[in-house]
Structure formats: structure tokens, C-alpha cells
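SAMPLE LOG
Freezer: B-3
Tube label: C17
Construct: single chain, 438 aa
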Amino acid sequence: MLENLTAATRGESAQPAGNTPRTPSGGHNPALDGLRALAVLTVFFHHMGLVPGGYLGVDLFLVLSGFLITGLLLAERDREGWISLRAFWARRAFRLLPAFYIFVAAGIPLVLLFKDADDQWQFLRNGLAAVFYVANIQRTLNPPDSGAWFGHVWTLSLEEQFYLVWPIALVAICRNGRLRRCLPEILISLVIIVLIWREVLISTGASNLRIYYAPDTRFDSLLVGCLLAVWRYDSLRGWASPRHAARATADAILRRVAFFSPVALVAIVVLFATGPDLVGRPTWMARGGYLLVAVLAAVAILGADQRRPGWYYRMLSCRPASWVGRISYSLYLWHFPVTGVANDSLVPRYGRVPSAGAALVVSLGLASASYYLVERPVQRRRPAWVNARGTAPRKGRGTFTPPAAAPRLATTQPRAMSPRPTSAPMTAGGESVPPAGS
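STRUCTURE (predicted):
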């Protein structure tokens, strides 16, 4: 899935896979990195057979991704007067593709040297699906055919499919002031539609894996993150429309909800430890459970964003957690083949816990190399136009310019409405890409 996702983006993007969140004034919020670390490590230990519900780390990533990306798109519209789709997709490409292509290329000689013809053909088939970001659809149609190298990249496909559609939809909605003011209601309606559609599929005999992997049944977690960003952003900015004057109180509501973030995080951890198996018929998780996890994740994210309570923020923003969060995209890419080797070769001889420790050390080493040698240098060298700053692009080329009738927002950076520091959904680099997946 979501990215995330380093080098400064001149105020632009957010990536749950290794970029640093910023407050409206530009301050760094490492607590969101801490949540990324929790999500990616949960997925890691799930693949080592130690955390039954660790696949739900995917949902935490997806909500965080929707929150960061939507907040950044709204901030760009406010700051620049338009949303540049070309720049948005270019930032995604610069953020994701270099490390991903190196990961793909690294598997080629290993498959040629150590695998037979059938495995090589499977690698080619899965690699093509991964490169074209349709791995989740392929896995929906043929669940066992995931491969030892690409079995986890379906989440990246899910995210990119969403971000091909969502920015275009957001541009269209923002062209109409009335629709923009109804954006929260639109997002809530879409979440309900996905929930109902899942129930329809389950009633017709859809498998649990069909529900888990397919985009039409998994977009609700991303939409919850988008909704949180809109709610957070609107409370921070306020609206001139009398109908929405009550939104000035939303900041106080957000602050109160944020105090429940530790409870939400504990509930998520309990679900990580007790989640039902994905194989077989859909469980209660498919019947609203994913949405429950998404809502809990949104509350946990809100506490990190608001930096409340203080001890909760300090716990998530400790240096080790923040560092793992920054490299989480590369860690997600490399952990899957490493855990596969560990499960096959180390676990039978040494047991799961020692094998997991060794696999984690190797995965962190590979992720660090990818982050410091590939991700950061590419981010530092990307073209200036990718940052969506400076001269406005010509109309008609994937841009949005607010109509005169639409409520115009201030062009300065938002200020928190509360005396305590609050953090806007921004990171210092890339776009949001939750390295999640099972």
C-alpha cells in the first residue's frame, strides 16, 4: 500500500516509508515515524510467524498514507492555488521507483543462479505484475502464486491504484466550492459503500483472500485517512461559510479525541497479537473489522499529530523508533525475502525467536543501505519542478485553480488554533507509501 513513507521537499510531500513529518511551522514530528516503525515491525514479525494478526499493520500504514497525502494535497492547493497532478505523480515516482527497481534487479541473478525454470517463470510473471502495480489484482485472481520475492508488494500496488484515482477526484471536488465543503460527507459515504460492498461479496461466497487483497474492498482504510486529513485540515484553517462556522470547534474536538490515542494504540496492538487467520472463509475482520482497525489507527495517528498526550508523543518519537520509521519503505521491501530464507533455513535449526532476531538484523542492514545510498541521494537530486513550487503551470495540464466563487483560503502556512503545538500532515520527503502487507 501507504510514501511515505530524508531530503527536504521544500514543504511538499509525506511518506510513511521514511520521510519526516513537519508541523505548520516546519518543525519535525518524529512520532509519525514511530507509528510507521510499529507497523513495519509488526508485519515483519507476522511474516516470521510470531504475530498472528500482524498483517493488520497494513491498515495502519494505509490510514497514515491517506492522512499524509490528502493533507499535503490540500496544503498545496491552499499555498499554490492549484494542485499539480504531474508534480504529485512525479514525486511518487522519484520516491518509490529507484529503491523498488534496485530491489527487483537484485532478485534476478539470485533466481537465475539458484532457482529452476518454473521458479524463474514465476519470478518473471510476478515481477511484471509488481512493476506495473497490479500485484494485488494478480494475487486476488491467483492467491498461491505470490512468489518468494514479490509476495508482499501487493500493498504498494493497492496504494498506487488509489493515488491514480484520488488526486483526480480531489481536484474535481475542489473545483466546486459546494462539493469541497461536503468533502467529509463524500468520504464517509465512500467508506460506507466499501463496507456494504464487502458484505455483498461475502454473501455471494467470496473468499477471505479476495476481500483482503482486492482494491474495491480495501480502499476504506485509505479513505479513513483521507477523512482524518480533511477534518484536521478544516479545523486548522476554518471556513468563511456560515454553514461551516461550527467547524471552529472541531479543533477542540480533535484535542479531546487525541487523548484517547494511547487507548486506541493499545487496542491495535491487541488486535495485532490476536488477529484471525486470513485463510478460509471471511472472519469478523472482513465484516467491519478492517474498518474498526482503520478508525483506531486514525485516533492513534491523531494523537501523534497533535502531540498529545505528551508521554505518548515522546514514546513514539524516541530515536530508535523514529529511525526505523524513516527507513521503513526499504525495510518493507527487503524484509520479505529475508524472512522467507529465515523461515526455510534458520527456524528448523534455531527456532523462531533467534531466527527472527537474525533476520531483523539483516533486513535492517539492507534497508539502511537502500535508504542512505538510494532513497536519500535521489530525493536530493530530483528536479525543482517536482516540488510543485514556483511558477504556476499552464491550465489544462493536471492542475486545479480555485474558481472565484469558491471559498479562498489564506496562502500562508496554517497556524494551530490551540496553544499547544500541532502538527500538519506533512513529512520532509516523498509521498506517503505505507510499506505494508502480508
